[in-house]
């Protein structure tokens, strides 16, 4: 997860579809792409939780109509995707990683790069994410926070999409990981699909994109797990503080009314 939401740059063309699942180094990958492509990157996890409400609400609507059952559904999904990704050089992380066929149709010249890691390590890291995202009190705590008040709704529409694609719900296992890789090989032409491990640094990524290795710039290393943990704790604290402020305001109003009686 990035440190803050990216801002689109008008006229920027989408060049890369990041097809890697969450917790496969997507934050480091996004920062590397930002450097190589010299443009803003749409990291789904960051944009939906740190961006304006329209971000998460748009993806909730997209996933609510996915897979499209009618031409109207398809047009709605395409229109919303374009509205969110216009002005970005690449998209990474969920939900785009599960919308690769739709993205290929909209961006036929884009390269598809799937970030990978050891499947068992991925399964373990996803368990932490699942535990955080499904806490029973989350909706109530996050309700006072713009955008994040829709986070539980977002998870609730993302879940059926994963079940449809991979046949599993949280906590997911290596089966989901393996099925994702197999699905990509099925839906993406071989000459447009690249598998990449961020541990390998600049070399393979630059080769895939036809770019020179940035001179004097170390490959970005962002720990997704630590970033998500810090973010989750911070937002829960923000929610509780906001509720305390609301309660204090209500009590103050009640006290004033009681004094006037």
Could you tell me the strand content as a percent range?
Answer: 5-15%
The tally of beta strands, per DSSP, is 5
> Which structural category do the helix and sheet elements fall into?
alpha/beta
Strand order of the largest sheet: 2-3-1-4-5
Radius of gyration: 20 Å
What value does the average pLDDT take? 89
Terminal-residue CA separation: 53 Å
Strand count, sense and barrel status of the largest sheet are:
5 strands, parallel
Low-confidence stretches: none
**How many helix segments?**
11
Shape: globular
What's the SSE pattern? EHEHHHEHEHHHHEHH
Question: What percent of residues adopt helix (DSSP H or I)?
Answer: 55-70%
Features:
261 residues; alpha/beta; 5-stranded parallel sheet; 5 strands
Structure description:
This protein is α/β, with parallel strands linked by helices. Helix content is 57%, strand content 7%. 33% of the residues are buried.
Topology:
Blueprint: E1 16-18, H1 26-37, E2 41-43, H2 44-50, H3 53-64, H4 71-85, E3 90-92, H5 100-106, E4 111-115, H6 119-133, H7 138-142, H8 151-166, H9 174-187, E5 193-196, H10 202-209, H11 224-260
Parallel strand pairs: 1-3, 1-4, 2-3, 4-5
Helix pairs in contact: 3-4, 3-8, 6-11
Short description:
This protein is of the alpha/beta class. The protein contains eleven helices and five strands; from the N terminus they run βαβαααβαβααααβαα.
């Amino acid at each position: 997860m990035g440190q803050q939401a990216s801002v689109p740059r008008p006229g920027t063309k989408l060049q890369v579809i990041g097809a890697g699942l969450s917790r496969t180094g997507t934050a480091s990958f996004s920062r590397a792409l930002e450097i190589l492509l010299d443009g803003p990157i749409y990291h789904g996890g960051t944009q939906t939780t740190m961006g304006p409400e329209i971000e998460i609400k748009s993806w909730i609507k997209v996933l609510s109509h996915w897979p499209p059952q009618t031409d109207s559904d398809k047009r709605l999904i395409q229109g919303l995707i374009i509205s969110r990704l216009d002005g970005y050089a690449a998209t990474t992380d969920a939900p785009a990683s599960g919308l690769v066929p739709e993205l290929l149709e909209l961006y036929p010249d884009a390269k598809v790069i799937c970030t990978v890691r050891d499947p068992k390590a991925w399964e373990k890291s996803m368990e932490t994410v699942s535990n955080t995202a499904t806490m029973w009190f989350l909706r109530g705590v996050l309700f006072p926070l713009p955008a994040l008040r829709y986070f539980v709704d977002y998870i609730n529409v993302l879940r059926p999409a994963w079940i449809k694609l991979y046949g599993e719900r949280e906590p997911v296992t290596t089966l989901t990981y393996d099925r994702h890789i197999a699905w990509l090989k099925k839906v993406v032409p071989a000459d447009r699909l690249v598998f990449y491990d961020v541990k390998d640094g600049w070399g393979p990524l630059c080769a895939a994109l036809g770019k020179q290795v940035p001179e004097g710039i170390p490959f970005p290393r962002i720990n997704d797990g630590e970033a998500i943990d810090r973010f989750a704790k911070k937002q829960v604290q923000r929610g509780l503080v906001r509720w305390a402020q609301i309660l204090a305001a209500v009590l103050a109003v009640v006290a004033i009314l009681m004094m006037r009686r």
